[in-house]
Amino acid sequence: MSAPTIRVLLVEDQADEVELEVRELKRAGLLISHRVVDTQERFTEELQRFAPDVILSDFSMPHFDGMAALAIARERAPHVPFIFVSGTIGEEHAIQALKNGASDYVLKTNLLRLPPAVERAVTESRERREQRRIRLELDMARERLTSILNTLQDMPWSADARGERLLFASPAAKSLFGRRAEDFMAEPSLWIELAHPEDRPRDQDSRFFGSLADLEQPSIRRNPPRTADPLRTDDRADPIAAPHLLATCVFAVEGDDLETIGTEDRHV
Length: 268
Description:
This protein is α/β, with parallel strands linked by helices. 39% of the residues lie in helices and 22% in strands.
């Protein structure tokens, strides 16, 4: 698979300097397409039209200032790496440029540094863009999952593999047990307290104080909103792929006959 072409926007007013920089990039084996601008108007236009992968800018030019170009780039295309290529930048200005968001700077007297600087900046930019895409997809998936969990009448929950801490409890906790999901997460022992006295020793041995990996049991719990009707729950826990987590699910159904309705795996 061939390497993708790198779109390079050069902010430079000297044609011979442009030729040297482009030649050095191509000599290093980089596939590039490039545009050259030397005014603020052209720079702003090409930022949108050309959509560069990297910007190479001189520091000082008669009609446009490199620091001004950097400020515009950070405002309009903050994800695009910006590299100063100059013979007059100086250490003080170089430090200030990096503080203002420049990715790197290369002296025109040492253009051998230009290709690796461009490759590194473009690679890091693409990695950040991919990370943003993954985070966005995860956020969307989390929102969809949350909307599903919030509409369930049963109470899915998850705990760490040691069974010592709840990581998640669905909002159905309020309607089923009269306690908020946050209460269960803040006080893991609350689950034991809600159990029927005859079930508490068994629950204490298996939940939050030991391994949950093989949990599958019916229980009777109090139902504070409707205390006249005790609550029969079927509990089941199964490990998920992450070695430090254990996803579990509680299905609860009210009824006078206290019959167990059944269980089903749900990874949370």
